[in-house]
Design a protein that fits this description.
Length: 183
């Protein structure tokens, strides 16, 4: 029996607190009630799958027991996106990806695409092995069936069948490549 689809949060306009200026994409902070943490709603670029890819990444991180932000699929005023729970609270520090990847990100500025995420991880793992060692060692936990289950839980109308197949194949490929740099 297949796993149930991931839930989708319905964000109400009265929950909006403020726009987030950091980064190049539109997003805003919101809170449903005063006793709940803040969440960041991100608008995806059209037809890019950024909303479901963030959810899948969080679920893969959970499977590898990597500390990560909670991510949910969300809708705001009819627009699909992702919602990320703030984890910069209770004495926790937030380190942005560009801080961790400093020194790993360099390429010819004429190359408009930049480096692949896989190449960024390879470079960052070499610069900060203490951040990557334990996660890379747990890659054996990821197999095709587990990745298919994670992707299969994205609601049917959020991903095309081709996008699902591509996501699984790409994650299988990347997992195999990452295993080669594991300690």
């Amino acid at each position: 029996m297949p796993e149930p689809a991931y839930s989708v949060l319905e964000i109400q306009p009265e929950w909006v607190l403020e726009r987030e200026a950091l980064g190049s994409k539109r997003k805003f902070w919101y809170r449903a009630t005063e006793d709940e943490p803040q969440w960041l709603f991100k608008y995806p670029q059209p037809n890019a799958g950024q909303h479901w890819s963030e959810k899948i990444a969080a679920e893969v991180a959970a499977g590898l027991e990597i500390l990560h932000a909670r991510v949910e699929l969300a809708v705001f005023q009819g627009t699909r996106g992702s919602a990320t729970e703030s984890f910069a609270r209770e004495g926790r520090n937030l380190f942005h990806g560009n801080q961790i990847l400093a020194g790993a990100i360099f390429w010819d500025r004429s190359d408009k695409r930049g480096l692949s995420p896989l190449e960024l991880v390879r470079r960052a793992a070499g610069l900060h092995p203490e951040l990557f060692k334990s996660a890379l060692a747990r890659l054996e936990r990821l197999d095709r069936q587990g990745l298919e289950t994670i992707v299969g839980r994205v609601p049917g109308d959020w991903m095309t069948p081709l996008a699902r197949e591509f996501a699984v194949e790409l994650m299988c490929y990347n997992t195999e490549q990452l295993r080669r740099i594991a300690p």
